[in-house]
DNA sequence: CACTTTTCATTTGTCTGACATTTAAAAGTC
DNA sequence: GACTTTTAAATGTCAGACAAATGAAAAGTG
């Protein structure tokens, strides 16, 4: 592991890259302890604060974890599905919110990927997955539900559908597509009628998954995509036409001219 | 933006979370300049090194960029597709390499997602995408190609297929699935016969995309999945049976008992 | 000897203060 | 006015120090 002190790049970035590469290529293996900060500082011939900045960069990506105390130090972290999942969601959420990705584009990507899961889910779903889907459908039928709670339940329903495929890699990949859509969905107001349509389609999907009907599950997802897209178009058209009749009461503090993007609660760095 | 000095968590982590949340929820907007490190240190009532550690955490996630000099500072970064893409690839690669994900699982996830793209690509692909696919097929037919070059070309082919769908969100999501598989694919030795089969299937896919035959593109991808899976199984079975006949010459320095995982070259943190 | 308590060395977390380097803007010069 | 020089502000880096956590060894105790 070497760095170039004459490079224009920050020393801490170079050190972080060097250590990360060592992790990625297997020189440093999971749960192995890195040298102490002082030793790293000596090795790279930099000061300890510089080493620390490098370690914080790695910690931000869940590549290492640190522990204080006698036999403490920095350890190579096994990237769990949970860690990867939350990073994926954060990245996807930011990507969508910062790049003015159209609802159409995000929606299309999401449903294309869900359709990829559906047949697998139909084949493999457990009773648990099915029960979760039914529970969420029931929740979505409750009259007093807020729009945000409705969206949250929607995400839970789709997560169960995806998890039903029994492929953790697929679940992890889909996490971004499904959860990152939630802020966009939160911008939509769901009328009683539109909720009814969505619940009906969710029911169709659940039935297809229950009867292991792969084609029906795909068809129902396509129908749901069409429904969602149409709903979003109507809502946005109504707003841009200056009739924010059914819109949320604005908090007045937003500096964005567009309907506000409502982020999910975020997890720890 | 507040932090709790009595929390057990690191101050730098708390500060990073506070700033990240401000970015995610829109309090800090793209290209906005953060207060200087000294001002942030005053605001949070911590020292400048602590603030710097927090900023490095954010920089590692491409949430901010820093600039030196007079009117320099830390700026909220617009997360580009390129940034998101490379983070996605790194995370996926590590997830696969550190969690002993079976080839079957990764392969299934990848092809399921690609099948989701194929119909869209058949509908929308430009002549450019098709040309890239044809070029890569031709490259893959060259006899002198190393296994790694063959894999790289394979990735390029599939990228063109995915990009053909014309949905940047989909391309970004698929990046992880396709590229993170490359190290796994690199563990496989491709015999002339297996390359032939793969090239033939690639040709079938390209033809389906060219003639805008959605169903044929999906069928060809499924066939490719079967072929890849069978190939991998044969290779791994042969190795575990103690006949590493067609395996790579081992470098002897690997401490892993399994066939070594060959990572892609990584980009900057 | 077995067990508990204390001490202690190690390591990360944080602070202070300083200097180096970069960079854009202001000031000066022709 | 165009060019050069100076300057100030900001990040990047350094050195040394102390605080806090923590496990292990040492000391004490029955």
From TrEMBL, chains A, B:
Designated name of the protein: GntR family transcriptional regulator
Pfam families assigned to the protein according to its UniProt record, in alphabetical order: FCD, GntR
Q: Which CDD domains match?
A: WHTH_GntR
- PANTHER family per UniProt: GLUCONATE OPERON TRANSCRIPTIONAL REPRESSOR, TRANSCRIPTIONAL REGULATOR, GNTR FAMILY
Source organism superkingdom: Bacteria
Every HTH gntR-type domain range: 9-79
- Keyword Transcription: yes or no? yes
Keyword annotations from UniProtKB, A to Z: DNA-binding, Transcription, Transcription regulation
Q: Output compositional bias ranges, type Basic and acidic residues.
A: 248-261
Region spans: Disordered = 240-269
Give the InterPro entries listed for this entry.
GntR_C, TF_FadR/GntR_C, Tscrpt_reg_HTH_GntR, WH-like_DNA-bd_sf, WH_DNA-bd_sf
């Amino acid at each position: 592991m070497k760095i170039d002190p004459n490079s224009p790049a920050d020393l801490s970035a170079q050190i972080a890259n060097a250590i990360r590469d060592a992790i990625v290529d297997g020189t440093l293996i999971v749960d192995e302890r890195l040298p102490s900060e002082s030793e790293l500082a000596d090795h790279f011939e930099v000061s300890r604060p510089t080493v620390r900045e490098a370690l914080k960069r790695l910690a931000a990506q869940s590549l290492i974890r640190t522990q204080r105390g006698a036999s403490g130090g920095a350890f190579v972290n096994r990237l769990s599905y949970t860690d990867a999942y939350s990073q994926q969601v954060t990245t996807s959420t930011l990507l969508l919110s910062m790049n003015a990705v159209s609802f159409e584009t995000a929606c299309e990507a999401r449903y294309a990927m869900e359709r990829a899961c559906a047949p697998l889910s139909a084949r493999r779903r457990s009773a648990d997955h099915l029960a979760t889907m039914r529970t969420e459908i029931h929740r979505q039928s409750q009259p007093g539900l807020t729009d945000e709670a409705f969206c949250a339940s929607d995400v839970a329903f789709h997560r169960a559908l995806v998890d039903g495929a029994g492929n953790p890699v697929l679940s992890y990949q889909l996490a971004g597509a499904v959860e990152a859509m939630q802020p966009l969905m939160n911008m939509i107001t769901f009328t009683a009628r539109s909720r009814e349509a969505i619940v009906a389609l969710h029911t169709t999907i659940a039935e297809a998954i229950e009867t292991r009907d792969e084609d029906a599950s795909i068809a129902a997802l396509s129908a749901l995509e069409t429904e969602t897209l149409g709903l979003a178009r109507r809502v946005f058209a109504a707003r841009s036409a200056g009739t924010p009749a059914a819109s949320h009461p604005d908090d007045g503090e937003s500096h964005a001219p567009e309907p506000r993007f409502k982020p999910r609660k975020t997890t720890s760095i």
